[in-house]
Amino acid sequence: MRERKVTELVPRDCAPPLGMGDLPVPPVRSDHLTFTAGDFLVLYTDGVIEARSSTGAFYPLAERVASFPSLPGGGPDSLLRHIHRDLLSHTGGQLDDDIALLVIERVPTRRLLRPLLDGHPMTDQVHAHPDGAPPSTAHERGARTVRGRPRPTPASCFRPGPGPGPDRR
């Protein structure tokens, strides 16, 4: 949903439904979409759009998403609750299939102030880099130490060992 207008995203290629593993699966291609600040993306299972009213009418998800009142603080959780309540009202409180809904909102982009960390995983010492990028070579890192010992490189922190075996407990 963008600016109160709902657009259905139709994939270029369709694949068999989940759980139909015996059917041949075509090669997967990515679809791309523009997702700008303030947009909502609503993902759902067939149980939502196939839910029927007492007269047999399918649930009109796109229409109901478009009718979502624009309220201050009305983020994805509010839209999710709106759809769920409306779906139950549409079906008279009775769902004949399982449903899943996921609502995602694109928030305005802000410069992330999350620094990358270069601390050793076995110590409590972590150093943040104000520019967001840790030094990449030993020369750039200088002679910093962790508790008097040279700081290990990330590769030396995670080398696989022999692990427990039948005679190691």
Low-confidence stretches: 120-125, 136-144, 152-161
> What overall form do the CA principal axes indicate?
flat
Determine the mean pLDDT.
72
Quick one: biggest sheet? Answer: 2 strands, antiparallel
| Count of runs of 4 or more consecutive helical residues | 5
Instruction: Indicate how many domains the architecture comprises.
Output: 2
Our measurement of the CA-to-CA distance between the termini, rounded to an integer number of angstroms, reads 57 Å
Largest sheet strand order: 1-2
Give the beta-strand count.
4
Strand portion, in percent? 5-15%
Query: Rg from C-alpha positions?
Result: 26 Å
Order of helices and strands: EHHHEHEEH
**Helix coverage percent of residues?**
10-25%
Helix-strand category: alpha+beta
Compact description:
By secondary structure, this protein is an alpha+beta fold. It has helices spanning 46-49, 61-66, 76-90, 138-141, 154-157; strands at 40-44, 101-105, 145-146, 149-150.
